[in-house]
Design a protein that fits this description.
single chain, alpha+beta, three-stranded antiparallel beta sheet, 1 helix, 3 strands, 57% strand, elongated
Amino acid sequence: MSVAKITEISAESTVSFEDAIKEGIARASRTLSNITGAWVESQQVQVRDGKAHSFRVHMKVTFILND
């Protein structure tokens, strides 16, 4: 039997929401092992001079606890 834990993270990118998700998962993977999935809870875009400047995601990341 395995036990999972869920932690919340936020990640930001100036490229896209998809890039913010990938960067957030990559960074979480350096600290957390056994990540099995993530749920994007919300997305925000920051606007400067009438243009999208940065993309932020708030995610819940699930990982399996080690024995």
